[in-house]
């Protein structure tokens, strides 16, 4: 049975690039005949690589198709030569680059910014998502799930629906892990930022041990600040919310600390749309407008990229301008529109975005 990861239909008039993985009969000239068939349909083969797998090889082909060509047409041509499409997904031009270059770029990006390590691994593997996990629990899901362990104990879990990971790809990821371990890169490690006032602040993932400090943060925030975050008249944080805030089942919580005091908190929560994640930010009143919110948004942008999201969405009250201002200063492309009685702020988290280390600029 062919595996086609639901690539979706093409829009009329729009050329599309596809990444296919194909198993062909072991006959001389089979690959040449298949590419000839694709060429007859005005398809342009942009890249070709051979991946050894148990029992043979899989050919990976990146092909640009003319406007209106449905992916089912490509699969029909492969079948006509006795082949089987084991995976197909949309691709872009950066996936045509050779694997050595891709690996070096991935390593360089992670060494420059450890928080981008999941995104680097995701790009190297062509995965749908790569997330930091506390433990390695679960099966390999038929080859669609892979685990990478870094030397500091960090565990990264990669998932890819359109095609199983091959041994060659897993070896590349393991080699990248060795490079990052040698460079003491930790994907989930704390990072330091400097606010516009010159104060040093540490950003790190929240844990249940931070419950008291997070409760104290909420107690110090004004009613206006809490209302802007929760859109409800809170004055103190209900204790039953603390665990869910610090360890959300569908996302990540980031804390900002000055010394041992939590002065800010941001969350990234997965939605039902794989392309989107919802983001929220809370900054203590005295630390607002110092670049701290922008720093947390930028850090969660790296997390979102690694998880395979394309954009982060925030819902704000029309009178609330703090999040929009921080988003504009984060270095990420921002779009704003009014929907009913709320303002929708969307931040694009494309893989080519690089944030400066210093905030408040």
UniProtKB/TrEMBL annotation:
Residues 19-93 form the ACT domain. Pfam families: Acetyltransf_1, ACT. CDD domains: ACT, NAT_SF. Keywords: Acyltransferase, Transferase. Residues 201-343 form the N-acetyltransferase domain. InterPro entries: ACT-like_dom_sf, ACT_dom, Acyl_CoA_acyltransferase, Bact_Acetyltransf, GNAT_dom. GO terms for molecular function: acyltransferase activity, transferring groups other than amino-acyl groups. PANTHER family: AMINOALKYLPHOSPHONATE N-ACETYLTRANSFERASE-RELATED-RELATED. This is ACT domain-containing protein.
């Amino acid at each position: 049975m062919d595996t086609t990861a639901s690539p979706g239909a093409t829009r009329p008039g729009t050329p599309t690039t596809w990444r296919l993985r194909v198993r062909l009969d072991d006959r001389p000239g089979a690959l040449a005949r298949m590419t000839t068939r694709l060429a007859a349909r005005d398809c342009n083969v942009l890249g070709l690589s051979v991946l050894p797998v148990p029992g043979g090889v899989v050919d990976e082909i990146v092909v640009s198709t003319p406007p209106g060509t449905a992916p089912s047409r490509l699969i029909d041509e492969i079948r006509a030569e006795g082949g089987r499409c084991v995976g197909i997904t949309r691709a872009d031009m950066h996936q045509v680059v050779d694997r050595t270059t891709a690996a070096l770029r991935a390593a360089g990006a992670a060494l420059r910014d450890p928080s981008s390590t999941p995104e680097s691994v995701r790009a190297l593997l062509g995965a749908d998502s790569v997330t930091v996990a506390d433990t390695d629990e679960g099966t390999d899901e038929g080859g669609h799930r892979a685990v990478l362990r870094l030397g500091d104990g960090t565990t990264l879990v990669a998932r890819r629906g359109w095609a199983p990971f091959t041994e060659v790809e897993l070896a590349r990821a393991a080699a990248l892990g060795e490079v990052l371990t040698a460079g003491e890169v930790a994907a989930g490690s704390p990072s330091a930022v400097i606010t516009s006032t010159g104060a040093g602040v540490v950003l790190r993932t929240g844990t249940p041990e931070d419950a008291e400090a997070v409760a104290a943060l909420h107690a110090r925030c004004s009613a206006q600040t809490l209302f802007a975050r929760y859109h409800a008249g809170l004055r103190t944080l209900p204790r039953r919310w603390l665990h869910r805030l610090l360890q959300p089942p569908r996302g990540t919580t980031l804390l900002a600390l000055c010394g041992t005091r939590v002065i800010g908190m941001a969350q990234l929560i997965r939605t039902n749309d794989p392309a989107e994640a919802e983001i929220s930010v809370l900054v203590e009143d005295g630390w607002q407008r110092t670049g701290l919110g922008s720093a947390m948004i930028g850090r969660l942008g790296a997390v979102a990229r690694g998880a395979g999201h394309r954009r982060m969405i925030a819902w704000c009250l029309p009178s609330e301008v703090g999040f929009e201002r921080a988003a504009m200063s984060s270095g990420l492309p921002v779009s704003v529109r009014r929907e009913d009685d709320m303002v929708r702020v969307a931040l694009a988290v494309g893989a080519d975005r690089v944030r400066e280390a210093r905030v408040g600029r």
